[in-house]
């Protein structure tokens, strides 16, 4: 079974258990909701959140229940596994990283800044002033030509 099919069963099951019709979930197009409940649509997190709000449950609950269906296990087993993973994450300290990203003025790119970026910039500038090509600089620094180009463009600004 796919995650879409598991999520379809959960959304439909919760909707029916709450005594709601597809029309009651008015902020989601009825034909789209039908495709979701049929497991024939890719659901974005935004749409899943709207559905959860209309169903009066947390979006995470829908995901947990879908995971339980997918793994063919009771929801309590899934919850215990997630709780264990949360405990491990808590020990690893990602919450401070998440807080730092939220405080940042711009969203993170997904890659850590390299500690030697300033050094690479200086080397790229020096080599360029000596007439080296982008390819030569990239090879010397072990970087992509596009990265070297970005360094040199940054210098021009």
From TrEMBL:
Domain HTH cro/C1-type: 11-62
Coiled coil, from the record: none
Record PROSITE patterns: HTH_CROC1
UniProt xrefs under SMART domains: HTH_XRE (SM00530)
Domain of life: Bacteria
Gene3D superfamilies: Homeodomain-like, lambda repressor-like DNA-binding domains
Name the UniProt record assigns to this protein: Helix-turn-helix domain-containing protein
